[in-house]
Amino acid sequence: MDSDKLKVRIKLFREKKSFEVEYIYKKKSLDERPMVLDVLLQAQEKKIDDLSFRYGCRARNCGVCTVDINGKPRLACRARVKDDDLISPISTLPVIKDLIVKRDGISRQMIGYNKIPLKNNLNVEAERSYHNLTACIECYACLDGCPLHKKNNLEVKNNNAYSYGNPFSFLKLQRLYIDPLTPEEEKKGIIEKAKNLGLETYKKEYKNLNIKCGVGINLKDEVIKP
Fold first, then answer.
1. Domain carrying residue 16
2. Residue 193 and residue 115 share a domain
3. What is the DSSP string of 62-121?
4. Same domain, 213 and 142
5. FRET pair for 151, CA 20 to 30 Å: which of 14, 32, 109, 117?
6. Cα angle at 69 between 64 and 70, to 5 degrees?
7. pLDDT-based confidence at residue 114 (cuts at 50, 70, 90)
């Protein structure tokens, strides 16, 4: 392979079939180390004009560009590509087309659990952990290897929520629980919701699980344990 080029493989999903296409990325300079997103944008412009993928902020702030690189979730705007890397949609969610996955089965788990009637007019300060949890960019990298999420039927019917939880949904509930504006009467419902999603199973059976977060949040100590 010429030094100004890089070969990658892109896994596409169309009409319920998957297949790989090879793309030769043309570097902008000899020393360029392109991000996955650079490759996808060029591939869409030069060869696969109907290539489908998501991206937003391009600054690791939104999480929507997450794809799998050689089977592991990475942010496309921040993960660098090496020769012969395989780019594919994240395997933990159902694919809509190419690299786009259906994300709403997880967000629907939170329906009915954000009943804060107050506004923070008094500048009530939250504990440090709350601010740490706000760093979550909803990239869903934490679904990778999650034993609870694996129990879900990914093809949820009628736009329902997934039955079993995951580190992300527990994070959302924990952040809401420790929010100083959450009324005390709402906190019992939040705990019950976490239990219904499988929190007790998570704590008992998977306490040694090494949960990975795309932006470095300590999911075990700041979410699952508390």
1. 5-101
2. yes
3. S-TTEEEETTEEEETTTPBP-TTEEEE--TTS-EEETTEE--HHHHGGGTT--------T
4. yes
5. 14
6. 150
7. low
In terms of DSSP bridges, do strands 85-88 and 5-14 run parallel, antiparallel, or are they unpaired?
parallel
Give the count of domains, the chain: 2
Distance CA 25, CA 6 (A): 5
| Nearest CA among 224, 115, 100, 89 for reference residue 168 | 224
Instruction: Note whether 97 and 137 are same-domain residues.
Output: no
Reference 224, options 214, 216, 209, 150; nearest CA is 209
pLDDT tier for residue 204 given thresholds of 50, 70 and 90:
confident
Task: Please check whether residues 123 and 199 belong to one and the same domain.
Answer: yes
- 8-56-31 Cα angle (round to 5): 40
75 and 170 together in one domain: no
* Mean pLDDT value across residues 76-87: 96
Residue 125 pLDDT > 80: no
